[in-house]
Design a protein that fits this description.
globular; alpha+beta; 30% helix; Aminopeptidase; 189 residues
Length: 189
């Protein structure tokens, strides 16, 4: 099975959305909602060199654009990585899991678009990429994110104490969620 987003047949459509690989010309649309307080309250202000960082191949290769009616309304990061394992078994732990993150334009929140998009990304991770585990994390105060993870069947695995530096400058608690391919298949036969 594929282990790289480039091997997936893009675009992927859902009932209301289209997911595709992000392109360099998406930078300004992404900037428009990533600099809004609904994003900066969790992710912090954008760096001055945002566009340069956005188009860097190592970053752009992780992003999927979410479109509704041909218009970019958000993005999902899919960072494929290795699981822990003893050195003698490193190849078995290579590129078997992904970490997800997402952001939407503020006016698009509350309509189920993030749930629909991340649900499609989970299918891509487990079916198309053959991954065994997907994770996501957020601050405990980011209720919308952790509720979305729970709606999708992700399991809360950790409540960390003051481990994340919030854009306010405060160290805050976090939640970590995960879903195994076997768990996903039970929910999606």
């Amino acid at each position: 099975m594929a282990k790289d987003l480039g091997d997936v047949a893009w675009p992927v459509s859902t009932a209301r959305l289209t997911l595709r690989r992000a392109r360099p010309d998406d930078a300004e649309a992404v900037r428009s909602y990533r600099e809004h307080t609904t994003s900066t309250q969790w992710l912090g202000p954008l760096p001055e060199n945002f566009t340069e960082r956005f188009v860097a191949p190592e970053r752009l290769g992780l992003l999927l654009a979410i479109e509704r009616d041909g218009e970019l309304i958000g993005d999902v990061m899919v960072s494929i990585g290795h699981a822990w394992g003893p050195a003698a078994m490193a190849t078995q732990a290579h590129d078997v899991q992904a970490e997800l993150g997402w952001a939407l334009r503020p006016e698009e929140t509350g309509h189920g678009y993030a749930t629909e998009a991340v649900e499609a990304v989970l299918r891509i991770c487990f079916e198309d990429l053959g991954l065994r585990r997907v994770t996501a994390s957020c601050f405990t105060t980011n209720t919308a994110s952790w509720r979305l993870m729970e709606r999708l069947g992700m399991r809360r695995e950790a409540h960390t104490v003051a481990d994340g530096l919030h854009p306010s400058g405060e160290w805050r608690d976090g939640y970590s969620y995960a879903l195994l391919a076997d768990e996903w298949r039970l929910r999606n036969p």
